[in-house]
């Protein structure tokens, strides 16, 4: 029950953090989309931008989270009556919120079943490292290394690179007294609520989807196993990028189309807030924003003031929020961009070699969340079927590949459907995503393909649903084929969600994650420091 309350608290914080800006920027008649759906999607970014602005003043984390919470609640209470949400806002938004809550429960059912004190998920070794950073951040300014303890003897190479989710965990710990280690999974899991909302915004904005079709898009994203995978894999920063990327693309479109100037600040806020939550997302979002600005400038060369203003405001928002942190992120990005340490090869590490399956057998199925590395890999690599259930292996693999190809075809159709002049930016942005995956494929960088396919799956899913709707509009057998393909995709994903949850709740650490050794190592670390154990 505590875990559920913490998850719902974070959902409420997402909503409250953006309530006042949304109401001030858009009146009901002026909103390009439902204001209520915008609020929680951008709320996490708003809260993090406030926290990092305060961190720039060298305040410790325990002071930052209280000050940011006070600012958020006060701004929400001061909304004038004429600017508040209307019945129409609530009427249009509640189905989307219901789907979001469904996604939250679906991705977190093992956490709710076992309790946040006992649930280890996949045992990602990044989790104890993140929590160690959180503990330092409670009483120390951002990026400062303690003078005693393990961190003082083995400091990280770049102590200023910290996932923004730390401030959510610290806030819950300060409010409730809960153990930080037990809150890492709660913070990861709360972001699942945002994925259907983010996809709904992209479908409505870029594809002009009807409300029922946009709701269908949200439902498909709610069952996406890629979201559940990052939740159970405890990928604290990556989950923030994954669930907010569709909304960020929609926000870029809002900023560059004719609208009130204040609305253009939504895109910079999402860019900066997501980058502070996950530093690796800064070059990605900057590149996608640059593509949108480039297309807008090419289409309207005589009216350059809007794209130039959006680009300038994005850079200014990042620099004004925390300039030193932006410099650290840029430095780390340049270092990683020149590194070849993640290349999968027979002469490299076994850990990276396991990701090579994203380059071969599991490339398409993994991209669509249909199947995952290691859990079912023998079905793809066994040439001669075994006896018993193994006789069904060729049929299963054939069904997986056919479904993956069919969904890919629908996604291409949906991508091509966004043909209006103002949507060329989205086409270029999506093409850049695919190009990045192909680039890492050609470089045999399985880890890069593994990451990118997971981060961008929600955007591709929105394209696939848009393509299915367009195909179904032709009627007849095409309508049946499109509906069956979507149903098969959702069925495969739902099965993967249940499989991921079942494996993550297992007490057998050897069967949990990829790779296995860090899972066993984390299992011992976490159990040694679990609440109630000797300290």
Q: What is the structure about, briefly put?
A:
With 535 residues, this protein is mostly helical. Helices cover 69% and strands 0% of the residues.
Give structural notes:
It is a single chain. With 535 residues, the chain is mainly alpha-helical. Helices cover 69% and strands 0% of the residues. It is globular. 48% of the residues are buried.
What's the arrangement of secondary structure elements?
Elements: H1 2-25, H2 35-55, H3 61-77, H4 87-114, H5 126-139, H6 150-153, H7 166-176, H8 184-190, H9 194-206, H10 211-222, H11 225-232, H12 236-256, H13 266-277, H14 281-299, H15 305-321, H16 323-337, H17 350-353, H18 363-367, H19 378-381, H20 393-417, H21 424-442, H22 446-472, H23 476-504, H24 516-528
Helix pairs in contact: 1-2, 1-3, 1-8, 2-3, 2-9, 2-13, 3-7, 4-8, 4-9, 4-10, 4-23, 5-7, 8-12, 9-10, 9-12, 9-22, 10-22, 11-23, 12-13, 12-14, 12-22, 13-14, 13-15, 14-15, 14-21, 20-22, 20-23, 21-22, 22-23
